[in-house]
Amino acid sequence: MPKKILTLEFKDLNELHKALGIAGTKHPLFSIIKFEELPALNNSKEAKLIFDFYQITMKTSFPCSIRYGQSTFDFNEGVVSCFGPRQSSIIDPHFVYAKSGWLMNIHPDFLRTYALGEKIKQVGFFDYEINEALILSEDEQKSLEIIFQQIEREYHLPIDKFSQDVIVASLEVLLSYFNRYYERQFVTRKINAGGILKKFDLLLNDFFQHKSNQGLPSAGYLAAQLNLSTRYLSDLLKQLTGLTTQQLIQNKIIDLSKDSLTGTTLSVSEIAYQLGFEYPQSFSKLFKAKTNQTPLEYRQSFN
């Protein structure tokens, strides 16, 4: 019988502040906390944490482990992690806070009337897993520290009609830096990432050879097989190939279907079912969109 894990859900920021043993928020929808100012955590059990708001953490020296799925990850250098609302994580019984850095909490309503409110929903790294955190160089860490310090200063000033505008503007700059540094991280890891691309292609081939009776392969399935989040895999593949996971799946479908159309006498419907399509019309529609020909037109062009 699996052991029961304590689950803690936080629906608003003041609930979190109370649980952390610190004063309430200066703004009901936004807070920024320095790790070194948090009281020691008395935690003797594994706990699953779920928050109804965005969280951004920048940690320098992080002597603890966090578990995602079946893997445990240790951080002992400057890292940035971003979490979207309702994203869960499990902390171990010996969890301690980072020695320095910041924890930023942003309720979606804080951004609701700003363009950033919609933009942040499209930002990929809020869907990344903890093992896909942004590892900072010394210069990058210094640049981000300046922005975090600016936001912290503004947060502690008396609230006026410009306070929220200033913080949101700083958040936009912060996310732009995250995008830049993640791009660098993808580039510097390209050698290792090439192995992921090879594994991805092998997984696709294996799926179509042995599992097409289960339907079409999904981006989520392939990411899980590679121990990556769906969003991170897609962003990584886009950096490596210029194509998203879904586009690469579709290209593989077209390549395999072309082989069948020119090398076998199978009907279009039989090929569609063989590839995992539930409806042959869906296959024909995709083929036409990708090649500007129907499957039959493509086959006839080789006769």
From TrEMBL:
<dbReference type="GO" id="GO:0043565">
    <property type="term" value="F:sequence-specific DNA binding"/>
</dbReference>
<protein>
    <submittedName>
        <fullName>AraC family transcriptional regulator</fullName>
    </submittedName>
</protein>
<keyword id="KW-0805">Transcription regulation</keyword>
<dbReference type="InterPro" id="IPR018062">
    <property type="entry name" value="HTH_AraC-typ_CS"/>
</dbReference>
<dbReference type="InterPro" id="IPR018060">
    <property type="entry name" value="HTH_AraC"/>
</dbReference>
<keyword id="KW-0804">Transcription</keyword>
<dbReference type="InterPro" id="IPR009057">
    <property type="entry name" value="Homeodomain-like_sf"/>
</dbReference>
<keyword id="KW-0238">DNA-binding</keyword>
<dbReference type="InterPro" id="IPR020449">
    <property type="entry name" value="Tscrpt_reg_AraC-type_HTH"/>
</dbReference>
<dbReference type="GO" id="GO:0003700">
    <property type="term" value="F:DNA-binding transcription factor activity"/>
</dbReference>
<dbReference type="Pfam" id="PF12833">
    <property type="entry name" value="HTH_18"/>
</dbReference>
<feature type="domain" description="HTH araC/xylS-type">
    <location>
        <begin position="198"/>
        <end position="301"/>
    </location>
</feature>
